[in-house]
Every structure is written in C-alpha cells, then in structure tokens.
Amino acid sequence: KKLVLNQEPSLYYCLIFLLLLCAGPKEYAELWNCLAQWRAMFDRYDRDRSGKMNALELRDAFYHLGYMLPTSVLQLIILSQFDDATGNTVDLCFDRFLECGMIVKSLTEKFKEKDPGYTGYATLSYDTFMSMVIPFIASYD
C-alpha cells in the first residue's frame, strides 16, 4: 500500500525520513508500518474524505488513540495551524496530524513517567517541565 501525502512534507517529516537512511531494514519496516497505522487512523476519522481533519475529527481520532484531550488543548492544536496568507486557521493535513499525534503521544508518555499512579496529576519542577517540553517545540519555527 502506498503512503500518499496531501501536500509538501514539513521539515520535521523530512528529518524522520533522513533518519531512515541510517536505519537498517528492520527499523525501516517498523517505521513504515507505524506511518501506515497513523495514515489508516487519519483516513478513518477524515469522515468527509477532504484529506484534512477538522477539530471534531481530530478529537475523535485522539479519543480512539486513548487521549482524552481537553477542549482547550484541542483548540490550541487547531489554533496553531495558520494559513500565513489569510491568517485563518486551517484543518490538519496528514503531515500535521502525524506531527501533532507524535507530540501528544510523546508528551503523554513523559507525563506518565511523573504520574506512576495514573492519577492525571504530577508534581514537576520547572527544569523538569522544560526538559520535557522543549525538545518538542525547539525544532519548530
């Protein structure tokens, strides 16, 4: 099955593929399978088949993945997607969905390390918090 992008891939996405050049066949297959699973999730929740995800479709996809994100967090994700030409927010294409999904997944895993009882609460120092978050935002504009 072919993985199809709906627009030019972002720098982040290109870096993932560059890392593949250093990986062996097993790692390449694992990453390709992971991307195919994310693509299947995107296609499943892109209910209008527009090739983009609106806020409701994004909420449902994250919920299916086990992430019950508060409305305020979903709004931040959507608001972070601006069309520079119009200044309006835009729906997420697959590339942006993948980026957002990987960030939510990774930050959730980092948070769970600090919340071993899975209570939804953790006490973090400022340094710990910044060490958890900065790697995910430092590579963006």
The helix content, as a percent range, equals: 55-70%
CATH architectural group: Orthogonal Bundle
Look up the CATH topology. Answer: Recoverin, domain 1
Rg from alpha-carbon coordinates = 16 Å
**What is the CATH superfamily classification?**
EF-hand
Shape: globular
Output the helix-strand order: HHHHHH
Number of strands: 0
- What about the largest sheet? none
Assess the beta-strand content as a share of residues.
Answer: under 5%
What structural class do helix, strand and pairing data support? mainly alpha
Description:
There is one protein chain. This protein is an all-alpha fold and 141 residues long. It has a single domain, classed as Orthogonal Bundle (Recoverin, domain 1), CATH 1.10.238. The chain has six helices and no strands. Helix 2 (25-45) packs across helix 3 (55-64). The longest helix is centred in the first third of the chain and has 21 residues, at 25-45. It starts with 10 loop residues before the first helix and ends with a helix. One of its GO terms (molecular function) is calcium ion binding.
Write out key terms for the chains shown.
calcium ion binding, EF_Hand_1_Ca_BS, about 0% strand, Recoverin, domain 1, mainly alpha, about 140 residues, EF-hand-dom_pair, 6 helices
What topology does this entry show?
Blueprint: H1 11-22, H2 25-45, H3 55-64, H4 71-79, H5 94-114, H6 126-137
Helix pairs in contact: 2-3
In short:
The chain has 141 residues and is mainly alpha-helical. The chain contains six helices and no strands. Helix content is 60%, strand content 0%.
